[in-house]
Specification:
Number of domains: 1
Radius of gyration: 15 Å
CATH architecture: 2-Layer Sandwich
Strand order of the largest sheet: 2-3-1-4
Structural class: alpha+beta
Distance between the termini: 29 Å
Low-confidence stretches: none
Largest sheet: 4 strands, antiparallel
Order of helices and strands: EHEEHHEH
CATH topology: Alpha-Beta Plaits
């Protein structure tokens, strides 16, 4: 499983425009083969920060998405960022849920 994220600091004057582009893009991404989830977040503490996160079932699914027209659109949106965007691809080998909290708290 691969967790992909893009964090962008945008000019406040472009925030609404960028949200209008990325929200439908996130919805389309959710429908792609191999996408386990895709979400667009606005930071509650930093006004003009947006983060787009997606989780992919496999490397092949991620690579197909990276070659898509939607990812090309995301690359164009990233050019609007005030500072270079933070782009991450984290490979997840193992994950747990609330049982980890229960185990730690006894």
């Amino acid at each position: 499983m691969i967790h992909a994220s893009v964090r962008m600091v945008l000019p406040a004057t472009r925030l609404s425009e960028v949200t209008g582009i990325l929200a439908p893009l996130a919805e389309r991404t959710k429908a792609e083969r191999g996408c386990l989830g895709c979400h667009l977040y606005r930071d509650a503490l930093e006004e003009a920060v947006l983060t787009l996160e997606a989780t992919w079932a496999s490397e092949a699914d991620l690579e197909r998405h990276l070659r898509s027209q939607d990812y090309r659109q995301l690359l164009l949106v990233m050019e609007l960022a005030q500072v270079p965007p933070e782009v991450r691809f984290d490979r997840v080998l193992h994950s747990t849920g609330f049982e980890t909290v229960e185990q730690a708290r006894g």
